[in-house]
Each structure stands twice: as C-alpha cells, then as structure tokens.
Amino acid sequence: MTLHFPNHPTQDYTSFKSLNTEMNDHRSSHFSEILIPQQKSYISISFPSVISPNPSTIPFSLSLLTETIKTQKDFLDSLLHRAGAVLFRGFDVKTAKEFNDVVEAFGYEELPYVGGAAPRTNVVGRVFTANESPPDQKIPFHHEMAQVPEFPSKLFFFCEVEPGSGGETPIVLSHIVYERMKHRHPEFVEKLEQHGLIYTRVLGEEDDPSSPIGRGWKSTFLTDDKNLAEERAAKLGMKLEWTEDGGVKTIMGPIPAIKYDESRQRKIWFNSMVAAYTGWEDKRNDPVKAVTFGDGNPLPADVIYDCLKILEEECVAIPWQKGDVLLIDNWAVLHARKSFNPPRRILASLCK
User: Fold this and answer.
1) Is CB count within 10 Å lower at the N or C end of the chain?
2) Which DSSP letter does residue 334 get?
3) Cβ(109)–Cβ(86) below 8 Å
4) d(CA 343, CA 169)
C-alpha cells in the first residue's frame, strides 16, 4: 500500500509510525492507518485519522468489517477521542443497509432527529439522508444541533454516490477555532461566554427542499399536533410563536456558545453562530436576525466573517470516494458542506 504524506510543516512521521505499530501489534491486523494529502497534523495526531484494510485482508467483506469494529471498539473509541474524526476508506461499503450495519456495529445509542433544521429523509434503520438542500448551496460550519440542548455526541456520514465534482464535507477541530478566536477577539469571546446565543428560526408547516433550513415544524417535532409540538419544544427549552399561515417562529436560548469538553479538558467553539448568520436564509428567514447574543444584542458582522475565515483556514476537505464512512466526534469537530455538481448522495446517522 502506498502512503501519501500531506504537505504540512508539522507532519511527524515518527508519531504516525508508532501509532500504526501500536494499532497493528496490540489491536488488529485487519486495519491499517494511512496518510492522505489533505490531512493536517497537530502535534501527535493526523486529522482526521484514516483507516483502511490491511493489504493482507483484501478483499474485505462487510461481515469482517462489522466484526472487527465490534472486537476493536475500545481502540477505535480511543482513536476517535485523540483525532476527533476517523475516515474509513477502502472497505467497499455499498448500500444504505450496509452502512446501517456498520453504524450498528459500533453500538452507540441512536439519537432521533428532533429539533434539527435540515431537511432529511429516513432511508433505512437509523440512516437518513444528509442535508438535502440544493447542490449549488454551501452549508456553513456547525456542530450538529448545537442550537438545542440535546445534540448528538457522534455523527456518521457515508458516501453512497460519489459527487460529480465538489461536495466535500469540510471538518475542523473546535478547540483550535476557540483558541484562535480567543486570541483575535477576546472581548467578543468573553461576551459569548457570559451571555451565550439566542437562535430564531421561522418554520413552515411542511418541509421546504429549496432551503438548507427548510425542515417544517411537523418534521422537526415529529408530529402534526400543535399541542404535542409545543410539549416537545418545551422539553428542548424552545419557545414557539404560531404564525397565521400555519408556520411557527422558534426561539431557542440563551444557550451556551462555548462549552467545556470534560473528556479532553479544553474549551470548544460549540455553536451554530456562523451557520445561522451566513446561511439561515430563505423566504421566511433573515440570517442577520437568526442569531444574537443571549442578551438580545446583535452580533458584529466583521467578527462573524473573521470567524468564518478561521474556520476555512483550519479545515480539512477530503474529496468523497464511494464507500467512505466518516465518523465524527461532535464534541470535537465542526463540519460543513461544499457546493457540488450532481450526482451526490451522502447518508448520515446520529448517535447519543
């Protein structure tokens, strides 16, 4: 197997070699960690980690993959904790059903998609389509469901149909964004930590596939009963204001914009601020009004766009290949979506 080394000044081959040796000597002869050009290196870990079949085990059956995941679960959890994201490449996962089997093999509890903004469709089991907004639209960086109290701890993405062009899912380490924002805009970050954010979104009755935030209230709350929708919104800490056209205005917050990751003992940039301010736009929503400080004051546009610049500078965007499975720790990593030329079909699954 050919190893490709990323053109990154801090790439440390020694740390890669020791990690790969540790994997193969103590964990599994079926998996190998490889390097690809798009990765970044932070001290002793490549981001994301990329796992492929050991050449001696090719062809690699689905049953061997799921069994290896089960037997090497502790190691994979440890690797995810260190790297923040793990890309499984070359395992020839073909269908939504096979992807569902891979997700199930990890044993994480499923998180129902209640309160999220993206239009999605259930495909099979615990597998949904990723955001179905039009291909010419970018989806800005965000932690999944950061605007609600109950969010997934882990996300899976699967490339069922490789994009015609574009369509990458850029990822970025949240603590790096926090550290850079704290350095460049300390007063802004202090105010964020003090007040948090309020998110406001207007939902139609039904889904609007032309909008990146077009999930209607019936899909959002998994009911067509307004009273039940209000009960489920209240459990999320969300206020609802019904509109005359059958839609509803949702108000969430104040909710923390900076969290502390206990398991890694560091602060993280855990919010949908840039996504809301730059992307929550459709016929019902004005993105500038979609997010404010928790005290109701508007956010400074120049700081928002500087944060977007930092996100783009620090991100990794790996072109999708058919069969790729990407596991993301939602506590550690923000993700986005680039525009693309069809076809492209990326599926997703959320875990508690």
Assistant:
1) N
2) E
3) no
4) 15
Residue bearing the bigger pLDDT, 299 or 56: 299
Q: Name the pLDDT band for 116 (thresholds 50, 70, 90).
A: low
CB burial class (10 A; 0-12, 13-18, 19+) of residue 296?
Answer: exposed
List of domains in the chain: 13-169+317-351 (3.60.130.10), 174-312 (3.60.130.10)
The rounded distance, in Å, linking the Cα atoms of 189 and 212 is 27
Model pLDDT, residue 324: 98
Q: Average pLDDT over the chain, rounded to whole?
A: 89
* Confidence (pTM): 0.88
- Matching residue, tokens 């490709």: 4
pLDDT in tens, 42-54: 887 899 999 999 9
CA atoms within 13 A on the CB side of 27: 22
3-state secondary structure of 71: helix
Can you list the positions of beta strands (E) in 232-286? Answer: 238-242, 248-255, 259-261, 266-268
Q: What number of H helices and E strands is found in the chain? A: 11, 21
Lookup: tokens for 189: 């970050």
Q: Could you give the 3-state DSSP secondary structure of residue 201?
A: strand
Query: How is residue 130 written in tokens?
Result: 């990723």
Contact, 113 vs 129, CB < 8 A? no
> What is the distance between the alpha carbons of residues 213 and 117, in angstroms, rounded to a whole number?
5
Which of 1, 79, 7, 88 is CA-nearest to residue 44?
79
